[in-house]
UniProtKB/TrEMBL annotation:
<keyword id="KW-0677">Repeat</keyword>
<protein>
    <recommendedName>
        <fullName>Low-complexity protein</fullName>
    </recommendedName>
</protein>
<dbReference type="Pfam" id="PF00805">
    <property type="entry name" value="Pentapeptide"/>
</dbReference>
<dbReference type="InterPro" id="IPR001646">
    <property type="entry name" value="5peptide_repeat"/>
</dbReference>
Length: 211
């Protein structure tokens, strides 16, 4: 199906398990509740697509364009997002457990209540992202950019924020137990009401931190 144009088509609940959609145009397509497990979506155009509640487990999304896509409640476990673009995407309540998003752009993305447990987000751009109530336990966020990000009430237990940028980030009520913030920049971050038991910090900046 390489290069086929499905833009704007209603594919609600369709079973595309294992389908080959490399380079396919799926922008503005309705794929709500669709089964895309193990699907090949390399280089696919999914801008503004509706993937609410879709199953994308083990899908290949390398180089896919998911800007402004709706992935609310989608199952993205173990999907491959290498070089994919997720800027302004809605990932509220999605399952991203174990996903590799290293170096990806998630600027201003909505990840509220998302399960990102054990995910690789090192060097990712999460500037302005909404991660309120998200589960980031054991996640790798080394060198990630989280400026102005909202992490209120998030579970960051044992997460690795080594050398991450968290200037002006909101961590109010977050669980930072055992999290590693060595070298992190927390200038003007809000740490009010956080759980800092076992919190690891050295060599970064805590200038004007609110706690």
């Amino acid at each position: 199906m390489r290069g086929v144009n499905f833009k704007g088509v209603n594919l609600h609940g369709v079973n595309f398990q294992g389908a080959k959609f490399e380079g396919v145009k799926l922008g503005e397509t309705n794929l709500e509740g669709a089964n895309l497990q193990d699907a090949d979506l390399r280089n696919a155009d999914l801008r503004d697509a509706n993937l609410e509640g879709a199953n994308l487990q083990d899908a290949d999304l390398r180089n896919a364009d998911l800007r402004d896509a709706n992935l609310e409640g989608a199952n993205l476990q173990d999907a491959d997002f290498h070089d994919a673009v997720l800027r302004d995407a809605n990932l509220e309540g999605a399952n991203l457990q174990g996903v590799n998003l290293s170096g990806r752009s998630l600027k201003d993305a909505n990840l509220e209540g998302t399960n990102v447990c054990g995910a690789k987000l090192d060097s990712a751009n999460l500037e302005g992202a909404n991660l309120e109530g998200a589960n980031l336990q054991d996640a790798d966020l080394r060198n990630a950019d989280l400026r102005d990000a909202n992490l209120e009430g998030a579970n960051l237990q044992d997460a690795d924020f080594h050398d991450a940028i968290l200037c002006d980030a909101n961590l109010e009520g977050a669980n930072l137990q055992g999290a590693d913030f060595h070298g992190a920049d927390l200038r003007e971050a809000n740490l009010e009401g956080t759980n800092l038991a076992g919190f690891k910090y050295q060599g970064g900046s805590l200038e004007k931190v609110r706690s």
